[in-house]
Write a structure and sequence with these properties.
With 216 residues, the protein is an alpha+beta fold. The protein has five helices and ten strands, in the order H-H-E-E-E-E-E-E-E-E-E-E-H-H-H. A hairpin with a 6-residue loop joins strand 3 and strand 4.
Length: 216
C-alpha cells in the first residue's frame, strides 16, 4: 500500500506546486544564502517614519533588501517599505511606477546619483529589480547587467531617460521644457543624456529664480 500511495503523493505535490506558480505564488528563493550576486555590506536604512537604523544589508537579485539589525532576526523589505538605505558608500532610494524597455516596475530600489531641486537622478540596475514578486511584471526579463538612467520627480512617476535624440526630446520637454533655455537647448540637440547633471542644475536654478519675489 505504501508503495502505491507514495507516487500518488508526489504527483499531487507537483500539481499543487505548478498551480501555485501559475497564480503567481512561486516559493520565495533565499538569494542571500545561495546567490553570490547579492550586494552585501554594513549600512543603514531609513524607515518610513524617517528614523535610520544600522545593520548588515543585502540587496538581493529578487529586488528585496534583507537587513540584519543588531538584535533579532533579519527583516526583508520590498521597495516602498523603506525611504532609503546606505550600503557601503552608495545611497539607494526608491523609483516609482517606472516603465523600462523590458518591463514595468511599480517600485524598485535604485542607486542615487544626484539631486537638484525636485528631480533626483538614479541608476537603475536591473540585476537587482527581480524577475517576479509583488509589484513586478515578469513577462519579460531584463538582460543581465542592463542599467537605466532614471529621473524621479518629487511627485509623480519616474521616467527612464533614453539616449536617442528624438526620444530624449519627447521625454525631457515635459519635465524641464517650461525653462526656455533648456527647451531651446534640448530641441536643438545641444544637450543630451550625457549632460543630465548640467540639465538638472540649470532647471533647479531657473525654478529658484522664478519663485523669488519681484521687487517693486
Amino acid at each position: 500500500m505504501k508503495s502505491i500511495l507514495w507516487p500518488v503523493l508526489l504527483l499531487l505535490t507537483g500539481l499543487l506546486f505548478r498551480a501555485g506558480t501559475a497564480y503567481g505564488q512561486a516559493p520565495y528563493t533565499n538569494y542571500s544564502i545561495s546567490d553570490p550576486r547579492a550586494l552585501r555590506g554594513q549600512g543603514a536604512c531609513q524607515l518610513l517614519d524617517g528614523n535610520w537604523r544600522s545593520g548588515k544589508l543585502r540587496l538581493e537579485p529578487s529586488g528585496h533588501l534583507r537587513v540584519q539589525f543588531t538584535e533579532g532576526e533579519a527583516t526583508v523589505y520590498q521597495a516602498g517599505e523603506l525611504k532609503a538605505f546606505v550600503l557601503k558608500t552608495d545611497t539607494f532610494g526608491v523609483v516609482r511606477n517606472v516603465s523600462t524597455p523590458s518591463r514595468w516596475l511599480s517600485a524598485a530600489f535604485a542607486q542615487k546619483l544626484y539631486q537638484y531641486g525636485q528631480l533626483v537622478a538614479f541608476k537603475l540596475d536591473h540585476r537587482y529589480t527581480g524577475a517576479s514578486g509583488p509589484g513586478f511584471s515578469d513577462d519579460i526579463g531584463a538582460p543581465t547587467g542592463a542599467m537605466d538612467l532614471v529621473l524621479q520627480p518629487a511627485t509623480g512617476d519616474a521616467v527612464v531617460v533614453p539616449a536617442g535624440r528624438a526620444a530624449f526630446i519627447r521625454t525631457m520637454l515635459p519635465l524641464v521644457g517650461d525653462c526656455p533655455e533648456l527647451a531651446a537647448q534640448i530641441t536643438k540637440g545641444k544637450v543630451g543624456r550625457q549632460h543630465m547633471q548640467q540639465i538638472l542644475q540649470t532647471y533647479a536654478r531657473w525654478q529658484k529664480s522664478t519663485s523669488l519675489p519681484t521687487s517693486n
